[in-house]
Protein 1
Amino acid sequence: MKIDKKYLLISIPFLALLGIWIQGCLLSGTYVITFAVEDEIISTQDWWNDAAVDLSDNDTWRDHEENIKYVDEVGFTFWVENLNTTDSTTGQLYMTDIDTFTTIEQIRENATLVVDGIFLGPGGKRRILWNESFKYILNFPVIKEQVESGTFHLYGIARETPFHVRFYDIVAVITVTAGI
Amino acid sequence: MKRRFVLLTSIAILLFFADSGLAKVKFSLGGFGGVNFPIVQEDSEIAGIAGCKARATFFPFLGVEPNFTYIRQGGITAEVLDVDMEREGGNLYSYGADVVLGSFDSVEEFYWYFIFGLYGNAMRRVGREDLDKFGLNLGFGLEILPSNVWGIDFRTKTQIITIEGGSRKNILVTAGVNYYFGGFGF
């Protein structure tokens, strides 16, 4: 049986579309999830606390968690304050799944630096907005991996020693491609 | 790799039909502009499009149209802790070829056509990984022909870009101008 080439050509897009449909491609969307971190972080070189993040506490994350195909981007917004009134400092955020560090050196060596370069004068404070945060974000593949795991810890410290810094009103803004 | 695949496929299609010798080839060159409507993308807003295309019409019912499209993905504003925060948009560079099916030989003042194509897509946005992804376009258009060398082209295409088991989808609505030369007449 001979098939007219015209019909073959016309059928190509429909077959291609069907293939993509089968993969679930058409049934996906891109969502922006905002996750407010409850804890604030106050640190010096001698003592500190971390902010524990469990994304399953967020309703939108829970709605899409099972169907996430791809983490497109992770941004942050937060306030950072230099509590040292005599020296300037440079704020940093580290991310890890470990919460048993006993020294600042251990954090620097074992956690991943994800935000760096926020300069603050003595006693100064700044609000980093969502779009601006991308100027300071580093190591996106690690951030993506931690976000995909759903839980992680944030440590807020400074590049210089001694330091005394505070991070608060921290929000992670996560964009994902997920099944509908 | 995908970019090469799209390019080689386009060339192969062109060579196949050019070698067939079944028709005189009619060519056109054109430019277009329009609007991108993102579908189910909370991180993108409506924004502009611009591009250029060339068409080789090998048969009275079929043409191949290599083209390049610059697609803007509009920035968004989200309320975070009661503050409106902006996020700048991104750019999408789409390059590939469409197959155009229509009745080009029985045209008087206008004709409708069906269009589909394969594309490479380079997605760029500050703060994101650069993505180079394969995509598929499907759509239809209407071309008005005020003369036998000029055409005014209106079209809409659905663009589907595959991403790690999911996809990004845009509806591209454009208007453009084509200049025709060579081959059979309308």
Protein 2
Amino acid sequence: MSTLAPAPSKTTTSEIPELEAVRAKFPAGSILPQDGLDQPVWIVSRDVLFEVARELKENPQTQFDMMLDLCGVDFPDREERFEAVYHLYSIQRKARLRLKVPLREDNVVLPSMVKLWKGLDWFEREAYDMFGFGFDGHPNLRRILCHEGFQGHPLRKDYDAQRRWILTEDKIYTPKFDLPDTGDDMFERMTINIGPSHPAMHGTFRLTAVLDGETIIASDIEIGYLHRCFEKMSETHSWQQVIPYTDRLNYCSAFINNVAYCKTVEKMLGIEEAVPPKAVWARMILSEFSRIMDHCVCNGTTLVDAGALTNFWYLFQPREEIYGLLESVSGARLTVSACRIGGLIQELPPDFEARCRRLLEIIPPFVDDVEKLINKNRIWIDRAVGIAAISGEEAVNWSWTGPCLRASGVGYDVRRAHPYDLYDTLDFEVPVLYGGDVYDRFRIRMLEIRESLKMIRQLLDRGMPSGPYIVSDPHVALPSKEACYNEMEAMIYHFKLIMDGIQVPEGEIYSMVEGANGELGFYTISDGTGKPYRNHCRPPCFPIFSTFPRLINGGSLSDSIVSLGGLNVIAGELER
Amino acid sequence: MSQPLTQTAQTASAPAAAGRPVLKSPYPTEIRPYKPGLAERLYLPLLGGLMVTMRHFLANLFGRNKMYTIEYPEKRRDYSHRFRGHHILTTRPDGSVRCVACFLCAQNCPAECIHIEAGEHPDVNIEKYPVVYEIDMLRCIFCGYCVDACPEEAIIMSNNYDMAYFTRDQSIVGKGDLMKPFTFDEDQLGYRPRFPEEDVQRSKMRRDAFNLVEAAKQAQEREAAKAAHS
């Protein structure tokens, strides 16, 4: 039986001249380059962090214009106990960089970088909430995912995962507004709450808006009603047991989350190349079907918000059929858990290809019908064109990814920029539109559905690869049941895998796939045991939703409802 | 109004004055919204839309059996052989529980909903059996990890998704209830390690494919023979 493959080759910063040029501008010792499994890593001293970040962003040689992610890590044994981890990305250069800032326990204040990247606003609040980091100069540093009455910082290692708090109404989030100081018409202002439980809020968000007549002049959002701290739960469960949790992130396309997480762990194990072709093939087909499903849900519900109910029924019919396909593979419709680390849950059903072919017949007529009803319909055009518009430059600054970013004229797609699996062998286009409004976000999803269908057709034409559905490495995948019932060795592996879990080698990795609403990344740290040391999810809709007040301020109240639908905010992923 | 405008212009040029070159953004800084044409402004495409809805209306009116909606309690969806529903504890031929209380399912459960208390089995070859085996159906997330973990095929799933309880206590289902319905026939079974139905289907498909190939071969041979004859 085979053993674990050697860890993948490491990249270092010294090989990249652009980064070295930036490093030379700062005092020696303030930036330490480090080996990374997936991307260059810099350990930056806090004193120069802001300057380094600004240089990296504004230097034309580096152009790190997107701040993808910020999270904290806790190492109680180290002298510098905490680490703030920033993930930078340059769309132009397709380059990534991880900045790590070590912090001592007695001083956990960092400079706030909201001035450079507005998308960091909520990420910094999250790091404050989860780890207690301070951010000097942050405009609204309050808890975001936990209740205001929550005590302690849940992702610190000394916080007991079983701890319970009684949270009462006397400490609730009070919205913070930047009210324009006009001085007149004060009597006309009215503050209203939409949500948390309101049919127009897709999920449980609370939007507080100050209205002047029908116009929103200021607004604030409160989230966290669905927060379950999945990252803390990951730390107390084995690597394999995290997969059902990932189903519940973006539950409209649960399969893509499974793939993203499994790929992350496979990279850490160094078995990415060993995943059988059949598993890769099926993962791609089901991912694309999940994307279609997610776009159908998003566009259908957006149109419901605008009053066009018919399209909702048309778009939900293909979704129903895709659920049938997922159920025939994994046994569940919504929370599929259809991936395992190293492959798939089960052998594919015998009628898998026939079902996929049938879906390719069924889906296009519904998409055509909706486009015929909507695309040139003036009622929809009047409701959607120019609503909640954002330019590409601003969207990048707010860390947008996915269809919403592509509707603003920036053609960043992980499948094209950093092809994984077989995407580099497929013939597909990345649709880009330039309106940046609700109308173009709607249209780009329709175009992407067609691109996904094109990809699935190409994959099906290649035929199902033969071979196993999961790696045969007994340190990763459970032995087959026949072997387990009959052979002593397989039985021992079976017990070892379930009692101790997969032993993932020490290291850290950030791995991403193109989720249905943007770049879905997992930043995972292993300490060499059977459980993740830290498992952080980069949720694509988190920075997108943080832009919401900026999008709706100045518009009318009814437009705010339509713009929420177009952003495709999924509470399960937003609040984790 | 002119005063605030000049102010913004000044603040915009401030970074350039501070010695930092202002880069030209590689991304679109302005939005270019969709511009509707004349026909759209005259609401003409709505007629096409009305045709679409009318087609669907007539199709649904005269083809009700093709509709996607199901009148639920009377009719039910067909699920595959893999549906992950209510659990079943399988039995030995003598009707006793097959589980040997190895705790692998409880260990592998991400929701921690399985509670087992082990006891000594009178048969020394079996050693252990579960005195108590409870699943909290309100905690269970139906992921099938218990089935994957079981080394004895003692726990499998059915395709029963009707689980409603009057009290929370009823949701904790014990050994008796998990074993009781062993009147299960084949098509009520759900997620489990082996799917004999699928194997039958697979071999049938293989046989059909084989037959097709054979038929083609025979036809070819016939053609060749005919050609040789002439």
